[in-house]
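BACKBONE GEOMETRY TOKENS:
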Amino acid sequence: MKNLTDRETEILKLILEEVTTIEIADILCVSKRTVDTHRRNIMRKTSSKNLIALFKYALKNKIVEINKL
């Protein structure tokens, strides 16, 4: 499993905060397509098939804490 970049980690945190792709693009001043590419790379790098697996990855790797959501 490859490490996530700082940008991918930032996007992962936003995803877990239930921010939409379009909102993430606006927040980060990038295109929706760029966010989609990062999201796809995050899923691949974490070997996640869905958002539950992504959430479990984030908890296990201390990217997010349950009491901070």
Observations:
- The first helix runs from residue 6 to 16.
- The domain at 6-68 is CATH 1.10.10.10 (Arc Repressor Mutant, subunit A).
